[in-house]
Specification:
This protein has about 450 residues and is α/β, with parallel strands linked by helices. The protein has 22 helices and 9 strands. It has 3 domains: about 55 residues, no CATH class; about 325 residues, Alpha-Beta Barrel (TIM Barrel), CATH 3.20.20; about 45 residues, no CATH class. α13 links the parallel β7 and β8. The longest helix has 22 residues.
Length: about 450
């Protein structure tokens, strides 16, 4: 629902405190839904106005974007143990999915969890950072959550091909994205220059050289644009997901080169992403099912220990984990992983739900087969191709997916909520509100 001209004029005619007071008393329940609707689908001026209103209203209710830096620094000092923060990528229906996350968090007093979106996802899901942040904060408002909300730029990744053609242009593109994200309230940024690691070079130092230099350059840039009083949590990455497993030697070589390039007067990264056997989305079998994965938890434990004990970081980060079997998740806190990234599993819950309209599924599948036929590999079955490609439907069918009937949406949301509760329990972040409040600075 959009503010009428008279209401808007009255709203913005007072002082800033009066504005917030008016918003706090007049915008509740269904009207938050209206703000989100306009923040996502309104014209440019309506989107900007409604996103601003959501951010200000959230602040008035004790909801604010925050950096998880303090919590990870506490882990680096062994102030707490055996808790793995889930980082949740929401590719579509961001507002209702985020509401399910907050409901699960409130039921079990969870404070340590992250919402994130990757550079690639921003593109194919058609969600710019300001829209994503507005949906998340509105979801917190709707569900009555209070406190810090961690929103993260995931895989702000250097494109190797574009970098090799024009390094300066690709670097500036990442910086522009970082600036946009920070302005929207993303106070956690994962820099991924692992794509620049060249395994054909003879020494580890040579292999990691560009990764070190680019990650350091991006860290310095982030430190230069931080809002006053905020230390953005910056992550680095030493092993591209889906490639060969990372080693302790890789970590030490990367950190040596990174810190030398960064300089002694600049705060470095708070965590390090590694590769231990997963792939994004999992490996799809011909029938569309996901192959089992042998994750190297011993290596993950060793890397996390070195990250904490030698460099004061929160630990190692595991990507591509949402399609792992349930029995794997309790192992992440046991081996000291700082953070685990989860995406495709939630997408699968949405698309595979009996409450997702079958007519829409058929329409999406037909579109994918026609629109993206050039991306289909010669040995892909139709099931494999659709599984790997359907993430793009979140952008191409954005309005249709957001317009799923309320009863269907409610059923999907309940299934997601149950899944989030399971993950919070297995990752041992239940009852972490006090822990977060102790170490996270507003």
């Amino acid at each position: 629902m959009m503010w009428s001209g008279i209401a808007a004029a009255a709203l913005f005619s007072g002082t800033e405190s009066e504005v917030i007071k008016n918003m706090s008393t007049s915008v509740t329940g269904d009207r938050i839904d209206g703000l989100v609707e306009q923040a996502v689908f309104g014209d440019e001026s309506a989107r900007e106005e409604n996103r601003w209103q959501i951010r200000e209203l959230a602040e008035s209710q004790g909801i604010y974007p925050a950096s998880i830096q303090g919590l990870y620094e506490a882990a680096g000092k062994s102030a707490y143990h055996n808790k793995t923060v889930p980082a949740i990528n929401i590719r579509g229906m961001t507002y209702p999915v985020a509401r399910a996350v907050f409901r699960a968090a409130l039921k079990h007093k969870v404070g340590a969890f992250i919402f994130e979106i990757a550079r690639s996802e921003i593109g194919y899901t058609k969600q710019r950072p300001a829209e994503y942040a507005a949906c998340v904060l509105a979801a917190a408002l709707k569900e009555g959550f209070q406190g810090p909300v961690f929103i993260q730029g995931d895989h702000f990744q250097m494109n190797r091909k574009r970098y090799s053609t024009d390094a300066a242009q690709e670097t500036e593109a990442i910086k522009a994205l970082i600036q946009e994200a920070v302005s929207a309230g993303f106070f956690n940024i994962d820099i991924d220059a692992s794509t620049l690691v060249d395994l054909e070079k003879k020494t580890l130092e040579q292999q990691q050289e560009e990764n070190c230099q680019v990650t350091a350059e991006m860290t310095r840039f982030i430190r230069g644009i931080e809002p006053e009083g905020v230390t953005i949590s910056v992550g680095g990455e030493i092993g591209e997901v889906g490639k060969q497993n990372s080693t302790v030697e890789d970590l030490r070589v990367f950190m040596g080169g990174y810190l030398a390039s960064l300089g002694a007067d600049v705060k470095g990264i708070s965590k390090i992403s590694v590769q231990t056997g997963t792939t994004h989305g999992g490996v799809v079998l011909p029938d569309g099912s996901i192959a089992s994965v042998e994750l190297d938890f011993d290596t993950l434990k060793e890397l996390s220990n070195v990250a904490r004990e030698e460099y004061g970081m929160g630990g190692a980060v595991q990507h591509g984990a949402s399609t792992l079997p349930d029995e794997a998740f309790h192992l992440f806190p046991e081996v000291g992983a700082a953070e685990v990234h989860l995406a495709t599993g939630f997408q699968n819950i949405i698309y595979d739900s009996p409450s997702f309209p079958q007519q829409l599924t058929q329409k999406i599948n037909q579109h994918l087969l026609e629109q993206y036929s050039d991306e289909r590999k010669s040995d892909d079955t139709e099931e494999q191709f659709l599984y790997k490609t359907r993430k793009k439907a979140f952008g191409d069918f954005k309005r249709e997916i957001w317009s799923i009937p309320p009863d269907n949406l409610r059923a999907i949301g309940e299934t997601l909520e149950e899944r989030f509760i399971q993950l919070f329990q297995k990752l041992n972040v239940v009852n972490t509100v006090e822990l977060v409040n102790k170490y996270v600075v507003k």
